[in-house]
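Q: Is it fine to ask for two folds in a single conversation?
A: Yes, each is treated on its own. Send the first.
Q: Here.
A: Result:
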Amino acid sequence: MSSNQSLLEQLTQKKSVLEWFKGLFTQVHLEITDTGEKYTILHRGDSAEVVSGFHAKKPNFVIPLKSENVGNLVQAFSDDTISAEEEYRIVKFMMVPCLKAALAMPILSNTAVHKIVKVDTYWQEVLIDPSGNEDLQLTIVYVNKQWLVIPGLHGTPNRRLALTPAQLLDFQRRVLAADASGKVSDWAGLAKWYVDWREEITVH
């Protein structure tokens, strides 16, 4: 067993880790870029499992990490509490994978849904750090029937969204819950919530 796998196994045994990640995913793929290792993390609510390689089932999202990031995650949860700065660093790694996964859902590739929910097809999104500064900056555009997530702020978008780590985590949990249920009523409820939430985090 590699040191990275050992550390991941250690993390999945901690109650604080299970609670913090609860509702964010049921299956995630981790790719350790500096070693080439690939792991699947299965979160079952009250327990989790580390599986070598990528599981056949499509994951909720894929996160690329370095070995030092795995070590940093272990250190962050060493006292079983996550500070605002630690939460920010974790969410910063999750933001792009979560966004790409949400945009890849069939319901968000449906142009009819775009019109009903009035989904923007060109917007910018930034993550706010604990000091209130904009750090991670993205431009999202729908072109040729596909979503593109581009690093940096480009052009003149329909709107610009600025959100905190807590707001992104809330969004991810709601999306996962709707996707897990698969019920039209739950997606409709999510769409209604999203319209109001989007206005709250829009930078005017």
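Q: Second one now.
A: Result:
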Amino acid sequence: MNTVLYEALRARRVTRNMTPEPVDSSHLDLVVQAARYAPNAGNRRLQTIVPVADQRMLQLLRQVSPGMVARPMAAVVICIDTARAVDFGFDPHAPGLFIDVGTAAATMLLAAQAVGLASCPVTSFSRAAVARLLALGPGQDPRLIICLGHAAADQPPAMDASHQPAHA
């Protein structure tokens, strides 16, 4: 058993309170690069990963993202490239495209944990506003934002054992 991986899985938490300490650009790069190791249907990579480190842009993203409770020092936006999906013959709403967003997110969340960053996935945001703010091209559909930063000392309590999945 790979205990290092298991420990990263066990230790990773959704962090809603982050400090104003900056995110090292090399750590943000590692998190973004981790997406390429995520399982992906047909290895087609129909997701676009957009890193955001500009503080003004992060403030604007927060204004159009009611689910962004954390005040991240960086973020990663995962988009579905619907134009490429159609070129490959997929329905742009095919479930596999959304599953691939999830596998990319899970892999990047673990990478963030591995480099010592706190993280929080966000799905409650205006997709049209995020696309406009980031000047995304036609067919780029933002679906998930991963907030990144350093965990503040004050956090909501961790989930207790009574709410964890049962062992098989």
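Q: Anything structural to flag on that second result?
A: Two points. The first helix runs from residue 3 to 11. Residues 17-153 form a domain with the NADH Oxidase fold (CATH 3.40.109.10).
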